[in-house]
Amino acid sequence: MNETAFERCANLLEDARKSAVPVPPLTNTEKDLGLNEAYRIQQALIAKRVKNGDPIVGYKMGLTSKAKMEQMGLHTPIYGVLLKSMQATNRFPLTGKIHPKIEPEIAFILGQELKEKATHEQALAAIEMVVPAFEILDSRFRDFKYFSLPDVVADNSSSSDFVLGTPVPFRGSGLDLKGIHVSFEENGKPVHEAYSSAALGDPGLSLCEQVSLLWQHEKRALPRGAIVLTGALTVAVELKAGQKIRGVFKGLGELHVEVAERGFT
Ligand code: OOG
Ligand code: MG
């Protein structure tokens, strides 16, 4: 694959996102599409959105928990980019989405830059805030489930939106990042639960993985102030109009999302 092919794939995915009309997997036609090529397509896609006035605010790790790896049938951690426009409020309209799903995650806001390779200790020292979060995924591919790792990565790792709860200052909090219990509720009923250790054993290690993947593929640092979603702790749940989603993140707080067919007025 060459620059022209990366650009062509990025345009295809961007058109699918804007029109909410899904496309077949890129690997159906791009036989040389491996992980490195997929990150190049992701970069071309993000560059377009940044050029249109939507700055990068952070990154998201994906496929960091066993629950998600098994749900998607894919077993390697990946990352995607978070743009300013992706931050949503807790009243979420389905307008313009293809087949959205929601999942609970631990997010961080960095108080210091991290780059190249970070030790667990360096990563922990760089965390300023710990934040209960939901990621809303929306694959631009048909059928969501049956795609390959390079397809997902090219599609910015299925990112669509994210919702943040109230940030909790990390330093001096005594918070055990591995031991946060999360209960995920749909319309008042608990449907899934997990501990934060589901994300690569510790969300802090997921942050380390984000630092090295970003360096490996883009030679970029995670800047101070960056938001990092460390990966879903449970399987993702399909979003439906009228649904009420609640996450209870023990020691961090609660997060609610109410789903509407169209924008709330
Ligand atoms: C890929 C993205 C996975 C996570 O938190 O595991 C992800 C997908 O499920 O489509 O964001
Ligand atoms: Mg996610």
How are the secondary structure elements laid out?
Elements: H1 3-19, H2 35-51, E1 56-62, H3 66-72, E2 78-83, E3 91-93, E4 101-110, H4 120-126, E5 127-137, H5 149-154, E6 159-164, E7 168-169, E8 181-186, E9 189-195, H6 203-218, E10 227-232, E11 237-238, E12 244-249, E13 253-260
Parallel strand pairs: 1-10, 3-13
Antiparallel strand pairs: 1-2, 4-5, 4-10, 4-11, 5-6, 5-7, 8-9, 8-12, 12-13
Bound molecules: 2-oxoadipic acid (OOG) and magnesium ion.
Structure report:
By secondary structure, the chain is an alpha+beta fold. 26% of the residues lie in helices and 30% in strands. The protein is built from six helices and 13 strands. The strands form two sheets. Strands 1, 2, 4, 5, 6, 7, 10 and 11 form an eight-stranded mixed β-sheet that branches. Strands 3-13-12-8-9 form a five-stranded mixed β-sheet, with no helix packed on it. A hairpin with a 2-residue loop joins strand 8 and strand 9. The longest helix is centred in the first third of the chain and has 17 residues, at 3-19. The protein is globular, with a radius of gyration of 17 Å. Magnesium ion binds at residues 60, 62, 103, 105, 135, 229, 231-232.
State the low-pLDDT regions, or none: none
Overall strand count = 13
Radius of gyration computed on alpha carbons: 17 Å
Amino-to-carboxy terminus distance: 46 Å
Oligomer: single chain
- Output the number of helix runs: 6
Structural class: alpha+beta
Hetero compounds = 2-oxoadipic acid, magnesium ion
